[in-house]
Amino acid sequence: MKKYLKHIITTLFIVSSLAVIANDDRFEKANRYYTENQYEEAIEAYEEILKSGVESSYVYYNLGNAYYRQGLLPSAILNYERALLLTPHDRDIRHNLNLAYSQITDKIEPVGEFFLARWFSNLRNNTDSDTWAIISIVSFILFLAGLLFYFFAKTILVRKLTFFLAVLAVLASGITFAFSNNQKHRLINRNRAIVFSPSVTVRSAPEAGGTELFVLHEGTRVKILQTIGHWLEVEIEDGNVGWIHASHLEVI
Length: 252
Prior knowledge:
By secondary structure, the protein is α+β, with helices and mostly antiparallel strands. The protein has 9 helices and 7 strands, in the order H-H-H-H-H-H-H-H-H-E-E-E-E-E-E-E. Helix 1 (about 1-20) packs across helix 8 (about 130-150).
């Protein structure tokens, strides 16, 4: 129940944040800079909004667009990824992110994913964490209502129907809560990063003298597995693993 309340509070906070942004003169000024092709000024204005503590997919997305217009692909990708974390169902963000990835040096073929896992992942990304939480709560309420009707129904047919609907509702509540929790976990425990150095050698050990395994270039996304000092063990999409100094990466 506490998790449900946390999701509700987070949803209200996000809604209020969007309202603040919609009425924020700084956001309007940044958008004006962007439409007038003053991308450096737009970048500075969007960054200033983020530094003030406001986190919004709209700001990240527009900032990513401004960086893209400047030809700064790593920064564009970083902000598109951050925007996608907040609104994983947004097709415009995903389209621009894929466009930016198509222009980086490294073309890494991902490891094949079981079709059922891929289907659940796509389903989960149809909306954001807070919407899934609301659906989960509504489904649980329907489950309780179904039980109430089941116990007080006078006919066997109605009892069977309400029991079946209650089972469906509690399954839907569990699945959607799992979706919400997964997305919230990704937001809080960010374990993916973007390479910002023009090129970096991935090594076999967390030290400069480690064996050279392969080279990555700016804009490539990696998954962080563990941290030792200033070194990060990372995994790329084809399954290869190695160590990179933290100075070469920016966490999404």
